[in-house]
Amino acid sequence: MSRLDTETKRKLREMNAGELLEAIDTQDETLSISLSFEERVRLVVDDAYSTFTHSKVSGLIRRAGLRYPNADLRSIDLLDERGLNRQLLTQLGTCSFVNRQQNVVFQGFTGSGKSYLGCAIAKRACEHRIRAHYVRMPDLEEAWVAAQDTPGGAGKFLRKYASFTLLVIDEWLLDRPTESMRTMLLELMERRYGETSTVFCTQYQQKDWHQRLGSGVHADAIMDRIIHNTIWVETGTYNMREQTALTSA
């Protein structure tokens, strides 16, 4: 089966079936010679699909721009000491909340692992073939300012960030957003509401959001599109940066 002529190989490449061609070329003739044709085809397709899936997931993870690309929900340290809900994290790892268009908020002190958890969630989404993206709020604001200086840039910016099935916004409300930023956030949250999921990583409790969003009608509207369909996760006060420094010392 692996002895394909040059023309057949060319046709497979032209059809973007490189994974299938590679699986055929690498199939062990000695081990598979006793198998029926159907069984050999199934093995080849299984191998090709595995390669295709791995390539697809790797691409999604790379394009997600994760701050911690190696973050993994399955290896979160000191769960009990940090007061993290193991069952809730396991549930989030299934990404079922994305199917329900729910949001997630990781809230806790500096160094409590919010960014890591946000990246871990985004990575799990990529592994489920979900298009995810990570961005720090200061970088989001910088990109918004730059977009407004380009004809049609504001609309392109909003379409881009509204299109991600899962968007992780780190350092949420670390700085008080400007009026222009609040206007953008309202439009972005409106476009994402009921269609996609957003993860917010923040030091601030929900009671502080309204003031940091300007305490006006924009604050009311932005919060209204976030808080009613959101899973809240307290990341506590345990400083994981300090713990990591002590462990590596």
Structure description:
This protein has 249 residues and is an alpha/beta fold. Helices cover 56% and strands 12% of the residues. The protein contains 14 helices and five strands. It has a five-stranded parallel β-sheet with strand order 2-3-4-1-5. The longest helix has 27 residues, at 37-63. The radius of gyration is 23 Å and the shape is globular.
List keywords for this structure.
249 residues, alpha/beta, 5-stranded parallel sheet, globular
Into which percentage range does the β-strand content fall?
Answer: 5-15%
Gross morphology is globular
* Oligomeric organization of the protein chains: single chain
Spans with pLDDT under 50 lasting ≥5 residues?
A: none
Overall pLDDT confidence = 86
- Total of helices: 14
- The computed structural class is alpha/beta
Question: What is the number of strand segments?
Answer: 5
Lateral arrangement of strands in the main beta sheet: 2-3-4-1-5
- Cα radius of gyration in angstroms: 23 Å
Order of helices and strands: HHHHHHHEHEHHEHEHHEH
Largest sheet, described in full?
A: 5 strands, parallel
Proportion of helical residues: 55-70%
* Distance, first to last CA: 56 Å
